[in-house]
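Give me the fold.
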Amino acid sequence: MANRTEQTEKRAKIRLLLGLEKKTQQEMRDALEKAYNLSADSLADNGYLSDQAGYYAALKFESLLRRHYRRVEDVFARRALVVFAEMIGARPAKKAAQREDRVTVRPPAKYANAFDEYVERVALTKAKMIAETTLNDIRDIIREGQQEGVGYAEMARDIREIAPAIASYRAATIAITETHSAAMFAENTMTSALSEEYNVRTVKSWISAEDGRTRLAHSVANGQTVEMEDKYKVGGEMLEFPGDPRGSAANTVRCRCVQRYKIIEDSSPLATTR
């Protein structure tokens, strides 16, 4: 089967990303708003900022992110398996058709281990970052209030008033960024593991979103093609895939770029039979 065209594949992936973002954005907004309100309660009742909001945000978001990463993985890892099977002229293991003339492609054990490690490492790191950003927002409000001679009760009211808007914006940013990163990691890691398992040479290409909000560095990276195990050079950084969490916020936050994969034909295990 012929590979999907670049534009068709890009649109399909972005539609999937949008759907997954919507599944978690509301629950993230609710969690953030509660964290801000806990801070307001602490100021109003005790006259100081307790650690309760930070602890709540860290624990809640670690749980939310773990669950969401698995939800994203289920979609994008399965899709990567299907696309890889198409590229080598085989079929995914779960396809119903019983055809002995086609190779059955199954997820390698190496992939599952890699994604488990991603969930453990990234969920904890990102949850801590989200909690710290939340506390920093509150500290800024307290600092401004103290400079203006505002009492803690009034500061608490200000926090409660702005909490819905701040929570909504931050939830959208987190949902977009974390959905994208997990999706790109899942498909990149699945494709890499399958390429190794089936002993084929695969290359990957950076495909910029080009939606009117694309970073200049990401537009420049459009079409950059590297070996599966190599990294892209984007905006002065080396990224394994779009949204690579090891990259800076300037290169990853709200990114919607994707990848396209191609097997070098003479390396396919089925090349001689097609």
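The chain has one domain: 6-199.
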